[in-house]
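go over both lines:
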Amino acid sequence: MADPTPTTRGDSHPVSRSAASASEHQVASTARRPNDRADLAAFAEGLAARLPGSWTVVAHEHGASAGQLPLTRRLWDLGHVSWAFEQFVPHRDAVLTSDTGCKLIVVDRPRREREFLVAALQPSDGDIADSVKAPASIVVSADPARAAFAVASRLLPRYKHAVRQARIEQLAVSVAAGERVLAEWDAVSDSLCDADHWPLDERYDLRQQQRDAEMWALFAPFLDHGPALVAHAEETLPFLDPEDRVDRRWPYRLRMLGEALEGGARVQAGFEAVAGALLPDHLRAEAAFTEAVVERNAEGWHYSLTWMENGDALVEIARAERDLRGHPDRSQRSARAQAARARSPHALRQPVATTAASAAAAPPGLLAHDRVRRSR
């Protein structure tokens, strides 16, 4: 068999066509597979640009497994990414943070060169109860457009639902703690007053400052994510049983919660303005800051008390929503019952009577005289 016709490349020695073809194939293959992996940082940037809202991206390269420890503690997943962190050592990742505080992590999928894993990171504003189900991670291709659709339609809804459930659990714990603070205050306040309910000495003011500080510490975290909880509850309300809405006075209590958040935000803004105006090197800077904290806690007492009195309404609505998800036929029955009431000849008089009864009813939680006594 005749040898292949030699070809020349410039002034180099003759090279056979088969050798040239193999060399070109090797170069093309290398160009198609840079480092045998798709560019994770570029993929994360493309993914963030296509997700709803505004996102920032921070990419990391890890040379050793020690760099993974912080991310492992914050990982909020029981699926692919959790398995990957246990079985392999990811040497690179990218963290995506939205303007609403949502945090996602992107890592390489082990043994797949053109696929990534996307999972959620735990919120940094509170502990997650064990009863909250972690949002499962997903596998996406290296195409940012396809990946963005999968993340927006599958992972983000799971993440938002899990965050809302975690914060409802946190709210339930805070309300219970607030009741303990109020019970302790009731137990000691009378002993610090005379028969006419006038304070005996400075111990009353010091104990009151302690009460205000404890209540504000329980209330302050909800200044950030409380509005989202109230807004979701208001959106859910029309789908719940009308009788429950009236009997438990949910609309009224949600309005009270909204007013408490607005008032608390104003108090916090005033405190931050005062704290920002202090000179750190001034001799009275520390004392002035302490006075500002005491004043903020005292001014926020009414709002923190209102939040604690009505916060369990959010827990009740979340429970009702969960029951509705488990029994979707209840929503249909509720809608039919509401339509039947609208056709009733008493429909025109019923809303007026219901509104008057709701307005005349005392707010849930503490009785009026208890509120006066606790607010002294």
Q: What stands out?
A: The radius of gyration is 31 Å.
